Amino acid sequence: MAMEDQPDSTVAATAATAAEKRESGACIDRQPDTALHHPSGLIHTGGRGGRTAAAGIRVLKRNMKRNGSRGCMTRKTRFGSRERDWLKSDTQRGCVCLYGATVDPQLPASGPQASSTPQPDLQLVLCSTSTTVEEMCVQRDGQDLYVQLHGDLLRRLEPTERPLQMVYDYLAAMGYADPVRVQQEAANSDLSCLIRFYSERPVNADQQERTLLKGVFSVRKGKTQLHKWAERQVILCGTCLIVASVKDSLTGKMHILPLVGGKVEEVKRRQHCLMFSSAGSQAQTYFVNFDTLTDYQRWHRQASKVVSQTVSLVDLSCYSLEALPEYLFYSQDVTHLNLRHNFMNLPGPGGLLHLPRFSQLKSLNLSHNRLGVFPECVCEIRNLTELNLSCNNLRTVPVQIDNLQSLQTLSLDGNHLSSLPAELGGLSQLSSLGLSFNDFNHIPAVLQRLSAVDKLSMAGNQVVCLEVCTLLSMGHLKHIDLRLNGLRCVKSESPEPVNQLTHLDLRDNCLDSLDLTSVCNLETLSCQRNQLRALTISGFTLRMLHASYNRLSTVSVYPVPNQLTHLDLSQNLLEYLPDWVCDCKKIEMLDVTDNLLSELPSRLLNSLSLRKLLAGNNHLHRVPDLLDHVPLEVLDLQHNKLSELPESLFFKALNLKHLNASANALESIPPSGQSDESLSTLQEFYLTRNKLTEDCGALLVGHHNLRVLHIAYNQLLSFPASKLSKLELLEELNLSGNQLKSIPSTVSSCKKLHTLIAHSNHITVFPEILNLPEIKLVDLSYNQLTEIQLPDSLPPTLQELDLTGNSSLMLEHKTLNLFSHITTLKLDQKSTTTGDSQNASAPWSHGYSEMRGQRNKLCVSVLAIDRLGDSVEACYGIFDGDRNEEVPRLLQCTMGDVLCEEVQHSSIDSVYMSNTFLTSHRKLGMAGQKLGASALLCYIHHESSEPGGYLSVTVANVGTCQAVLCRDGRPVPLSKVYSLENCTEEMERVKLNKAIVTEDNKVSGVTCCSRLLGCSYLSPWVIPKPWVHTEPLSSHDDFLILGNRALFERVSYQEAVCTVQAVRDPRAAAKKLCSLAQSYGCKDNIGAVVVALNIAEDSCTCEAPVYTAEIRGPPPVPLSVSMTPAPSDTATLSSTSGVVSEFNSETSASELGSEAGSTASDEHPSSGAAPRPERRCSLHPSTTLCGIIVPSSVGLVSHMGVFQRQPSCVTFSSNHSDNGLDSDDETPLEGVISNGSKLEVEVDIHCCAFQLRSGAPESTKDTDLEKRGCDYPNGKMRRQNSVVVSTTNGCLLAVCGREIADLKKSPSTSSLFGKKLSNGSVVVPEDSHNLIEVALEAPKKKSGYFTAPAQQDPEDQLIVPPCLEQEVREQLKGQSPVVSGPSATSIPASLKDSGCDQPHPLPFAPNMVPGPGATPIIKQEVYDTAL
C-alpha cells in the first residue's frame, strides 16, 4: 500500500502481488485504497465491473473481538505500520467504524460468555474528512449509512454528508481543540457509545412489535359456530386489527376491526387463542389462534394497550421512523398521532404527504424531526385542532396555514422564525401560540388579529425592548412570557392603561429598572435574576410578586396590594421592609432572605394572614413580641444576630410547625406554654450553632409533637434524662458539637427515633438506642467511647453506624459479628507505632464526609489521593449525580487513572485537565448516555515551568460542585458554577443551539447545568468541557474546601472557611460542614472534602531527617487488619491511630471480588529502631523510596493519617480465609475481622498510593538480609520474595512483586499501578481494557457499592499461627528456602523495564532509589494506543 506519498483526492494504484502481505496477516489488493481485508486473508477487490473506487478510502474488515464486556480490536489486528503512517501524516485523515445491522448498542456483551459468542464483522474505513457517504457506499457496495447518537435514534445519512467530519465536529463541540487529539479520539472504539455508524439499519425487535405485528394464523369470525377456522393473514397496526380475506395475500378484501374501547380476552377452550372484539352495539368479534406461546403473549400485550385507550391515539415517538407503516392508514379512526423524535420524510410511501388520508385526525405532533421546512401537506388536514412543529429548524410558515380554521394550539418553539405570515391572523379559534426560542426581535404584529390568543410564549428570543403601548392593540393577551430575551428596557409611556395583561414573566433579563404602573390589572409579576435597582408596579390586583436575585433597595407598590398573597424579595439589598407590606391583609408567604434588614415590623409578625416568614441571613437583633394569636406556621430566622426569641412565641403562634433559629447568639429559648400543659404543635426545631446550655432541655418538654430537633454546636454539658423521655414522637436528633458526656438512657423512650447524630462530643458510654425498632443511622464519631454494650440482636432497620474518632474504643470479635448486617459500618484501626510518619510523607492531609440527608440513596462520591505518582502530588475530587449514584461512583473509580495518563501527555494545565474530563466522559460508556454528574477535580502539583519548584493547585469542574481556598483567613473561589441561572454566557450558548429551557430553568426539563459529565443525549446543549483554573500555593494558604451544590447553597464561602479554621482535624471539619448544612435546611445529599495544607515559604516540602527511638516491643493492637494480595505472598496491613476502616456486610466476603485476594494475619511489627522517613520535595529527592515501607531488620513503620470510607469505597476480600479461629482457639486472633465464616478486609480507594522507581541493584548487605528473611518477635516467618507494602494516609496495601511491572503500566485512582476493578481489586491491565464497563458489569449492592464475584485462587497461602511457627520452621529445614529473595539473574522478564536493559531492583529492597538517569517515558504513537 502506497498511501503515504499520495494526496487524499488522488491515490495512485500501485502494483502488488497476492503474496505481498501486511504485518497483520491480511493481503493487499492491487488497488491500494479499495482493498477489503478479511481475517481469512482472501483478496477482494473494492469495486464491481471495473468501477473506480472513491479516492482516499480503504476498508478493513475484521471480526470484532471482545475483551471483557467491551467490544474492541487489538492494535495488531487493526492497522499495519503503513496505515498508521498514512493516518499520522495528515490530521484530516482518520478511521470510521461501521457496525453491522445485528449489533445492538444497548445490549453489550459481558461476562465470560461474551468472548465465546461470535460477533458480527466490524468494518474499518480509512478516509478523510472530505469523504462523503456516497463515496463510502460506492467503495463498499452498500446502499446507505446510518448514524446513531448516544445510543438513541438512528438516522439515515444524506449522500453528501461526511462521516469523519461529523465525528470531528462532534469532538470539537465536546471541547477537544488539538487536531492530533481529535484524530486520536475519533478512532477510539469507546466513542461508539457517543456516535456510531452502521452499514445497515439495525433491527430492533421491540420497536417492530410496538409498530406492527403480523402473521398467518387460524382465524374464525363471530362468536357462533357458523364460521369455520381458516388460515388468514392477520395484522395489528395502529388502533385496528386487520384480517385478510385470502390466505397469504393482501390483494383481496381487508376486514378492519377497530379495537379502541373494545375487548381482548383469552379463550380458555383453545390453547394460545385470543378473542378480539370492537366497541359499540354492533361489535364484531374475531378469534385468532396462535402457533406459539411467544406470539400469543406478544399480541395479547400489544392489543391490551390499544383497547385500554380512551381516544384513538397512535404513539410512534422515538422510533427513528422515516415513513409510516402502510398498514397504519387502515386505522381511519385515528384522532391523535404522535410522531415526535423521528426523521420523517415528505415524499415516498408512508411519507408526510400521505397524512391527509387520516380524515379524523385532530392532534399531530411532529416535533424534533429535522424537517427544515414547514410541511404544507399538513395544512390540508382540515379537522386539525393541535399542531406541534417544535425543533424542526423551520425558518418560514407558509401562507396555506389559514386553511386550518379549526386549529386551537400551534407550537413553533425551538426554530429559526423571525416573522409570521399575515394569513396566520385568519385562524379565529387559535388560543395558544408557542414562539419560544426563535429569532424574533419584536412581538409579531399578526397577534393583533388573533383575538382568541390569551397566552403568548416568547421566551428565549431577541426582544431587547418592550413597548407597553404596543400591547394596547392586543387586548386579548393576558399571559406574556418574555424570559431569557436579553430585555434591557420596558417603555411604559402609555397614554392609556393596559387593562388586559394579568401575568408577566420577565425573568433572566438585563433590566436595571422597571415601571409597570400603567399595567393596572397585573396579578403576577416574575422578574427574578435581573439587575433591578428600582421596581414600581400597580397594586390594584397584584397577587404574587417574585423579585429575588436583584439589587433592590426599595419596592414601590401603589395602592396597597390587598390581594397580595406571595411576596419574594430575597437576595436583594433591602435595609428596611416597605410599609405597604405590613398593610397587606391577605399576605401568606413573605421571603426576605439574604437582605440587610436590621428589624422586622411588629405589625408584620402580628399579621392575621401570614403563614410563612423567611427572614434568614439578615442583621436582625430582635424579633418583636406577639400581641395576639397568629396563624404563623413556618418561621426561618437563621443567620441573624438574635440573642433571644419572643417570650410569647409558642403560646401565641399555636400553628407554628417549623422554626429554624440556627446560627444566632441564643442563650435560651422561650417556654412552650404559659402553664405546664402546652398546646404547641411544633414539629421541626433547628437551634444549631447558638450559645444554648443544658437549661434549654427543660423548655423543650412541652413540644410533644416534635419530630426533628437539631441542637448541635452549642454549649450543652448534659441533656435532662427526664425531659428527653417525654419527646416520644422524636424521629431525628442532632446533638453534635457539644460537651455531652452521655446520652440519657431515656432515649429508649423515643420509639420513632430513626436518626441520632451526636459526633464531636465527650461521650464515653454507648447510648441505649439499639433497642429502638426504627433506628436507621447512628453517628457517634469523635467521642471518647471505650466499649459498647449490645443487645442480643440488632434492629434490622439499622443501616449506618459511625464510630470513627473514638481512640479508646475496644471492640470484641462477637461485637463485629453482631454488626455484620449493617450496610455502612465505620470504625477506627488502632495505631501500632508512635511516630507520625504519615504526616511527614506529604505537606497536606484530608478528610471528607458524605451525608445522605432525606434521600434513600447517596448520590455523592469523593476521590482523595494524598500521594499521586512518584512525586509530591495529590488529587482530590467530588462528584454529585443529583439523583443517580452510578455515574459518581464510576468517576470516582476512574478519574484519577485518567488524570495520571493525561499528565504524561501534556504539561499544560488547561490541556491535561480538560482532556481528563473529556476522556472520563467518554469512558462512562452507556451509563453516561442518559445519566450525568457534576464533577470537580483538584490537582496539587509542582509548576511545570520550574521543575521541583513551587506548588500549585489546578482545579477543573463542570456542573455545580465548587472549590474554595483559604488564604490568610479569606476565601478564594477556584471554580465556576455552570448552571443556567448563574452563568449568562452559558445561557446564551444553550439558546444559540436552540435548546428548550423550561420555566424552572432546566435544559429540556432535565438539568439546570449546562456542563456535566454524562447526559450525552443532551448534547450539544450540555457538554463535558470543564472550567480550568490554576492557583499558585504559598505559606499563606491554609486549606482547601470542596463541596457539592447542596453544601454551598446553605453554607457561604466565608462561613465554611471560619468553620474549618475552628476545627483542627480535617475529617471533623468536613463532618461539621455537612452537619451545618443539614441544620440550615438542606434535605439533599451533602458532600464535603477538607484538605489541610502545610506549605513552606518556598513551597518546599522537605524536612530534616528525624529518627524515632527504639521500639521495645509491639504495643497492644485491639483491632489490626492484615491482608495478602496474592497466594504465597503475604504482608502485614498495620493499623494506625486515627485510621478509619469501614466494613460493609450486606454482602458476604465470598461475594466480593478477590483478584488480589486477601489472607488474615495477626502479626506485629518487629522491634528495633524504626527510621522516620524524611519529607522531601522534587528539588531535594530522597535517597530512599518515599511512600514504600519495606519489612527488614528495622520495624515496619505504619503511617498515621486518614483512612476513612463512607459509602464511596472499594472492598478487598477473600473467599479462602476463615474467621481467624482454629478448632483449638478459644479467642480470636488479632487482626482478623470476621463476617460469619468469611474474612472481610476493606481498603479505602481515597487514601492509597504506591510508588515504584527504577534504581541500582540492591547492596550485598541487603541481599544477605533478604536471604536470611525477617524474624519477628513472635516467632513468625514472613515471605518477602515478592511483596511491596505501601502506606499512605494510614492505609497499607500489599501487591505481589510479580505483578508490579504490569500494574505499573496504568495508575489507578488509588495509585495502585493496575487496573482497579469496581470492587477495588487490582488486575493486570489488558489491551483495550475499559475500567468503566468492568464496573458496569459488576453486580450492585443495595448500598451502591460495586462488587464482583469472588474467584477461586488455586494457590492459597497457609497461615501459620505463632504457636506452630517453630515447628514449621524445623520441618522446612533442608528444603528449598521459602523466604529467600530471587537473585538478580532470576528476575522474571515481566519485572524488567521495557525501556532499558537494566532490570528493576527487587520490589522489597530497602534501598530502592532512582537510578542515575530517569527511566525514559516511551510515548506510544497515536494509533498504537487508540486504534
What would you note in describing this structure?
The chain has 1427 residues and is an alpha/beta fold. Helices cover 15% and strands 21% of the residues. The protein has 27 helices and 65 strands. The chain has a 24-stranded mixed beta sheet, with no helix packed on it. Helix 16 crosses helix 17 (909-923) and helix 16 (886-905) runs antiparallel to helix 25 (1331-1337). The longest helix has 20 residues, at 886-905. The chain is globular and about 90 Å long. It starts with 35 loop residues before the first strand and ends with a helix. Mean pLDDT is 75; it is low at 1-55, 61-77, 103-119, 832-840, 1103-1358 and 1376-1427.
Q: Compute the number of strand runs.
A: 65
Approximate shape? globular
| First-last Cα distance | 19 Å
Largest sheet, if any?
24 strands, mixed
Q: What structural category arises from helix and sheet content?
A: alpha/beta
Binned, the helix content reads 10-25%
Number of helices: 27
Q: How much of the sequence is in beta strands?
A: 15-25%
Radius of gyration: 36 Å
